[in-house]
Amino acid sequence: MNARWVKRLACMGLMLPALAHAQIDLTTFDHDMAGPRTQVLVLGTVHLSELPKDFDPKALDPLLDRLAGFKPEIITIEAIGGEQCDLAARHPTVYGADYCAGTDAARAATGLEVPAAIAAIDKTLGDWPTQPTPAQRRHLAALFLAANERASAYVQWLQLPHVERRAGDGLDDALVAILKQIETRNNENYQIAARLAARLGLQRVHAIDDHTGDNTRISDAEVKAFGQSVQQAWNAGRSEKLDAMEQQEKSLSRAHDLLPLYGFINRPDHLWLRADINAGAAMRAQSPQHYPQIWAAGWEIRNLRMVANILQTFRERPGARVLSIVGVSHKPWFDSWLGQMQGVAIVDAEQILK
């Protein structure tokens, strides 16, 4: 009905019903679904590189035991996948020149560019035997390095007997050196995800991070002011509760057993404080250029695309058990949005970590 007819009917004394915005609850369509629900456990993690220098990866063993008890069939990590790394390399003016680690050494060893390496991985895993030989694992590790999927290469490396962790079958000395260097990295993608995947006999982990939506388009002259404005918003949003939480985290991070740390940071009350300082403080901040709100939009775009990438890992495997390991600040968004997806059930991390 056009505006002229609305006006004419009003002049005739006829009242039109109020127009309501349609609200459809999309979360109800799977209430009577056939088959099992996909079980998704989102583990909020600290960044291990920020722990004290004397951090011992053995402190993660009790955590790994709990996660192994969940029996994930798919593990995702907060890392940029090879496909997006390749995209960024082809568009350096959009994403920057140092978006991902280089693949020159792997290309020299295998002769493969990233797209070809990804295709070779898909073909190799499609014909993967139940009992792969060391040569097959070395070859697949080389392919993963060529595809810029280092954590997955490390999964293969860890499943080799120590005597077989050597050059050969596509791995040359330079690539072996990269894998040995990874062994020393305090990084949750290697020390938690890859170690757990190898322990469970999985062949890879899935990199699901995405920065294509938070590469904020502001001029070089605005960068400093943008950063200052966002930091001021966060500073203004701090509270005594948040300060106390961070002090407790620091204390727990020095323990010889990090399971209590992970139980602490995955508590709902602590997750709410993190979400509020990230998004709430930004939305409340005053800025003539609306810089904090621009940052918050980029943050949510990034999380939306990461959640979509997680869904893609189990698209063809409804009913799978999925472990998503991500920086703890992302967990509230992951739990909320993944929990709205059809056929997905969110597993209570707090219960798993007790």
Description:
It contains 17 helices and five strands. It is an alpha/beta fold. It folds into two domains: 82-148 and 150-203, no CATH class; 220-352, no CATH class. The protein has a five-stranded parallel sheet, sandwiched between helices. The longest helix is centred in the C-terminal third of the chain and has 24 residues, at 291-314. The mean pLDDT is 93. Keywords: Signal. This is TraB family protein.
Per-chain topology:
Blueprint (H helix, E strand, L loop, with lengths): L2 H9 L26 E8 L15 H10 L3 E7 L1 H9 L1 H4 L8 H7 L3 H13 L7 H13 L3 H9 L14 H11 L4 H13 L5 E4 L13 H15 L2 H13 L6 H7 L2 H17 L6 H24 L6 E7 L3 H8 L5 E4 L1 H4 L2
Parallel strand pairs: 1-4, 1-5, 2-3, 2-4
Helix pairs in contact: 5-7, 6-7, 7-8, 8-10, 11-14, 14-15, 15-16
TL;DR of this structure?
The protein has 17 helices and 5 strands. It has helices spanning 3-11, 61-70, 82-90, 92-95, 104-110, 114-126, 134-146, 150-158, 173-183, 188-200, 223-237, 240-252, 259-265, 268-284, 291-314, 331-338, 349-352; strands at 38-45, 74-80, 206-209, 321-327, 344-347.
